Amino acid sequence: MELLGAHANVYAPFYRQVNFINLTIPGVVLDPLVEKTPREDIFTAFDYYLKNVNKGERPFIIFAHSQGALLAKELATTFLGHPSNRHHNKNLIAVYAIGISVIPSDFARNPQVKFSQAREDLRVLISYNSTTTSEAETEAYKNFGT
Q1: What is the pTM of this model?
Q2: Residue 125: which of 136, 139, 109, 140 has the closest Cα?
Q3: Do residues 113 and 92 make contact, with C-beta atoms less than 8 angstroms apart?
Q4: Tens-place pLDDT, residues 77-127
Q5: How is residue 120 annotated by DSSP?
Q6: How high is the pLDDT of residue 146?
Q7: Nearest Cα to 91, choosing from 145, 55, 40?
Q8: Are 73 and 31 in contact, with CB atoms under 8 Å apart?
Q9: Mean pLDDT over all residues of the chain?
Q10: pLDDT tens-digit series, residues 7-24
């Protein structure tokens, strides 16, 4: 869905989410489920947006929450990190991935994107990491934010 405004265009694609039933089945892990249909839907929608709506001409911001934040992180790292899509990084202002954990190794696929350090930074990911004490003590979070 595209909404035209006085100062910005909002492109809000629909995608097939993983529902609560999938998340409560014992032994089912979220990440592999999100990597299938929702990821394909959001990658296809973002590719369409870049080629047919944005046309590589305008800066863009990606906002998402919860399951959508996981997909926003995938757009910033996997999609925009792919060699055929890296040229779009020049127009990326920021990715707001709220409600999903992000660790430094997530940026390996797209080193052009980094954590935000200052308000004027571009090509950054902004996230509110929420972790348990046991998660924070793992190797993945060692030296987090340095």
Answers
A1: 0.76
A2: 109
A3: yes
A4: 999 999 999 999 999 999 999 988 888 888 999 999 998 889 899 999 998
A5: T
A6: 44
A7: 55
A8: no
A9: 81
A10: 777 888 887 776 655 455
Contact residues for 38 (Cβ-Cβ < 8 A; gap 6+): 15, 16, 17, 18, 67, 71
* Residue whose token pair is 């929450």: 65
The amino acid at 141: Y
- Residue 39, CB half-sphere, CA atoms under 13 Å: how many? 15
Predicted pLDDT of residue 21: 52
DSSP string, 69-103: HHHHHHIIIIITTSTTTGGGGGGEEEEEEETS---
Per-residue model confidence (pLDDT) at position 44: 94
d(CA 69, CA 7): 24
Whole-angstrom Cα distance, residue 38 to residue 17?
A: 6
Residues 6+ apart with CB under 8 A from 44: none
The pair of structure tokens assigned to 75 is 């757009």
CA distance 47 to 75: 10
Q: Which amino acid is at 26?
A: P
- The one-character DSSP state at 54 is I
Burial class (CB in 10 A: 0-12, 13-18, 19+), 27: exposed
